[in-house]
Amino acid sequence: MLSDHLRKGLLIVFEGTDGTGKSTQLKLLYSALKSKNYPVITTREPTDGKYGREIRRLYKNRKRYSDEEELELFLADRKEHVDALLTPALNRGKIILCDRYFLSTAAYQGAIGFNPETVLARNSFAPNPDLALLFHAPVDVGLTRIISGRGEAPNDFEKAENLQKVAAIFATIDRPYIRRIDASGSIDSVYQLVMEHVMPLFSNSSFSTLDLK
Ligand code: TYD
């Protein structure tokens, strides 16, 4: 595997509590980059692979697994994602937009009792992102968006008390590639904030300076 500074592509991850609109912002950035012919791809965690599918079953009944087994499932899913998609795509020079990555494991599995730094250390096999956009909004704003936007009841990961804990851990994690985004505004105003962080990344990379006018 190429070390982080030698790889040709870019890894931009979208992180935050549920209902902060990160997936909407990911799609907007994808469309903007695609329309300018950048070699952009999107992906997500949990993935659609065998571990990711098992994790989706877990949403409905979180008690099926022990806490350690739950953490191991997320790590196994990520390992497969890194080996099968992320590392090869970075080496081929792709710009990857990834919906959730290891900061989610630190925050969500941290909320059930794991030490977030220990969780991050167990992710050392995974390449660091070039940029992690960490979306935050009051938890009740997120829950309202989940219920009204998706027309669904919150799943086991999305209960308010759990999300408060998750948000508190996200707020404490400090890494040089993290940029925090206040996601309580309109879709357009949040997108402006996203672009303020994405633009400098392009001017410091082998990609041409981003011009999305
Ligand atoms: P989410 O992005 O909401 O997926 P979907 O849109 O398919 O429902 O992620 C699903 C849940 O998984 C979310 O509540 C956070 C949780 N999660 C973890 O607990 N740990 C992790 O490592 C990841 C990637 C997600």
Output the keywords.
single chain, 213 residues, alpha/beta, Rossmann fold, 5-stranded parallel sheet, 8 helices, 5 strands, 50% helix, globular, binds thymidine-5'-diphosphate
Question: Can you walk me through this structure?
Answer:
The protein has 213 residues and is of the alpha/beta class. It has one domain: 3-Layer(aba) Sandwich (Rossmann fold). It is built from 8 helices and 5 strands, in the order βαβααβααβααβα. Helix 4 crosses helix 7. The structure holds thymidine-5'-diphosphate.
Which bin fits the share of residues in helices? 40-55%
CATH domain fold name: Rossmann fold
What is the number of strand segments? Answer: 5
Biggest beta-sheet profile: 5 strands, parallel
How is this structure best summarized?
By secondary structure, this protein is of the alpha/beta class. It has helices at residues 22-35, 50-60, 67-91, 102-110, 116-121, 139-150, 160-172, 187-203; strands at 10-16, 40-44, 95-99, 131-136, 178-182.
Topology summary:
Blueprint: E1 10-16, H1 22-35, E2 40-44, H2 50-60, H3 67-91, E3 95-99, H4 102-110, H5 116-121, E4 131-136, H6 139-150, H7 160-172, E5 178-182, H8 187-203
Parallel strand pairs: 1-3, 1-4, 2-3, 4-5
Helix pairs in contact: 1-8, 2-3, 4-7
This protein binds thymidine-5'-diphosphate.
The site of thymidine-5'-diphosphate (TYD) has 12 residues, from helix 4.
